[in-house]
Design a protein that fits this description.
The chain is mostly helical. It has a single domain, classed as Winged helix-like DNA-binding domain superfamily/Winged helix DNA-binding domain (Arc Repressor Mutant, subunit A, Orthogonal Bundle), CATH 1.10.10.10. Helices cover about 65% and strands about 0% of the residues. The chain has four helices and no strands. Helix 3 crosses helix 4. The chain starts with a helix and ends in a 6-residue tail after the last helix. About 20% of the residues are buried.
């Protein structure tokens, strides 16, 4: 399960509980673009929601929580 550099950047903020708008402002992306990336991350990890993404990222040591 490979995530792109941008997806990993978004994951860093996603696990901090930031919403799409906040992530977009931090990374200079539109909210729509962040939503697209989050959907892609959820699909790639086989998760059902953002919370499960954070769990998988920690469990698989993809990102240190």
């Amino acid at each position: 399960m490979k995530l792109t550099k941008r997806e990993l950047e978004i994951c860093k903020y996603l696990i901090q509980g930031k919403n799409n708008s906040e992530i977009g402002k931090l990374l200079y992306l539109s909210e729509h673009t962040v939503k697209f990336h989050v959907s892609s991350i959820i699909a790639r990890l086989g998760a059902s929601n953002r919370t499960e993404v954070a769990y998988i990222l920690g469990k698989e040591n993809i990102i240190n929580l």
